[in-house]
Amino acid sequence: MTVMPKPVPPDALDAIRAIVGPKGWIDDPSDMLPFLKDERGLFVGKAPAVVRPASTEEVAAVMRICAANQIAIVPQGGNTGLCGGSVPFEAGDAIVLSLGRMNRVRAVDAINYTITVEAGVILAEVQAEADRNDRLFPLSLGAEGSCQIGGNLSTNAGGIQVLRYGNARDLVLGLEVVLPDGQVWNGLRGLRKDNTGYDLKHLFVGSEGTLGIITAAVLKLFPKPRDIKTAFVALPGHREALELFALARGASGDQLTAFELIPRIGLEFSARHVPGVVDPLERPYSHYVLMEMSSSVPDGDIGQTMDRFLETAMERGLVLDGTVAASAQQATQLWRIREGIVESQKHEGGSIKHDIAVPVSLVGDFLDEASRQVEERLPGIRVVAFGHIGDGNIHFNLSQPVGADTKAYLARWAEFNEIVHRVVAGMNGSISAEHGIGRLKRDVLPDFKSGLELDLMRKVKRALDPAGIMNPGKVL
């Protein structure tokens, strides 16, 4: 049975426009387009308007009108998501609610090591404000110059420092949320210990806007690193990376901040297409690790710790060659190799992407088995497997064979998803480590979640959003 989209009542649109004013209202098609298409260009939707409220009170007032008229709402931050969760469907029966104008830093409590920010604050600005107060906000990812903290929380973003500081979920102490009926839950508590019942904030973190709209958050801050050492090392293979990781954690006293696996093909892609990227070693190797150790103690012994660790690793045959950055500029150049892998794949034709996680101890098994199966299915396919090996998260991307037809290759996306996801399921892993479910992975989620898990999720959804107006058709 086909359900026809319900048109949005014009009088409801007029009422919403009166709430947000001219600065908060976009209905020109060309101006709306950036809000209607996703980062990868996989989905392009429609909407009668993009609404940009400037305060929590305006968000609540808009939600009350939408609830009364059963108008669907698609909450949106910086729209940098990779699973289509922040754009509307093609039916055009949902309003996009963008939080970009809610961009105030409300408070910094340096003694409590917290910062309170509105949902539309750019992640890089949260980092900068923490730095201005001699503190660290550790969430860091490629889109940090344009993604917004509300979206980061709604998708439980990960990034390069999860190993030491955790996902976005681990960095939030309190939330302010507008519920689907327009009520405002003020849970902006900067408490690290609060054992008074259900921890409601975790319902909304990672829910991708399907349960309510995060409008503000209290986030954890940390001591600012004073001593940082970055190393780029070559390994015999990816399995040695796991031994190296265990050795690094012990040798550093768990001061390991980042530990990223980079295959040779990833370095070659970056050097080929990203200005300024060069191979830092004299000869090629099959695999590399980009790692970082840090301490909040100035002029500490991190440099000596790194040197002792690398010496031991080379004696054991885990490291074949390497370089340690002698300056912040050199460290930035090394990190540019890792960051460039994402950018450079666009220049190598079609790329079928996977954001998976398995137990750290099984990463080697996953890489061997998944690579074998996809290469058997399509000889010449180029496996670009890289990422946060220290927390079991691998970006298992598959670049098309050289000279292949891009459109025909990308038409096999579901086929290769099924192969890779089957390997992940056999290892009790996850098909979405940090990118979420959104629209892209919604239909395959039932293959990897038990019926009971999905039923519990639906019960929570019905309890908070009985009319189903919050980001409908996403996740569930």
TrEMBL record:
<dbReference type="InterPro" id="IPR016164">
    <property type="entry name" value="FAD-linked_Oxase-like_C"/>
</dbReference>
<keyword id="KW-0274">FAD</keyword>
<dbReference type="InterPro" id="IPR051264">
    <property type="entry name" value="FAD-oxidored/transferase_4"/>
</dbReference>
<dbReference type="InterPro" id="IPR016171">
    <property type="entry name" value="Vanillyl_alc_oxidase_C-sub2"/>
</dbReference>
<feature type="domain" description="FAD-binding PCMH-type">
    <location>
        <begin position="43"/>
        <end position="224"/>
    </location>
</feature>
<comment type="similarity">
    <text>Belongs to the FAD-binding oxidoreductase/transferase type 4 family.</text>
</comment>
<dbReference type="Pfam" id="PF01565">
    <property type="entry name" value="FAD_binding_4"/>
</dbReference>
<dbReference type="InterPro" id="IPR016169">
    <property type="entry name" value="FAD-bd_PCMH_sub2"/>
</dbReference>
<keyword id="KW-0285">Flavoprotein</keyword>
<dbReference type="GO" id="GO:0003824">
    <property type="term" value="F:catalytic activity"/>
</dbReference>
<dbReference type="InterPro" id="IPR016166">
    <property type="entry name" value="FAD-bd_PCMH"/>
</dbReference>
<protein>
    <submittedName>
        <fullName>4-phosphoerythronate dehydrogenase (FAD-dependent)</fullName>
    </submittedName>
</protein>
<dbReference type="InterPro" id="IPR036318">
    <property type="entry name" value="FAD-bd_PCMH-like_sf"/>
</dbReference>
<dbReference type="InterPro" id="IPR016167">
    <property type="entry name" value="FAD-bd_PCMH_sub1"/>
</dbReference>
<dbReference type="InterPro" id="IPR004113">
    <property type="entry name" value="FAD-bd_oxidored_4_C"/>
</dbReference>
<dbReference type="GO" id="GO:0071949">
    <property type="term" value="F:FAD binding"/>
</dbReference>
<dbReference type="Pfam" id="PF02913">
    <property type="entry name" value="FAD-oxidase_C"/>
</dbReference>
<dbReference type="GO" id="GO:0022904">
    <property type="term" value="P:respiratory electron transport chain"/>
</dbReference>
<dbReference type="InterPro" id="IPR006094">
    <property type="entry name" value="Oxid_FAD_bind_N"/>
</dbReference>
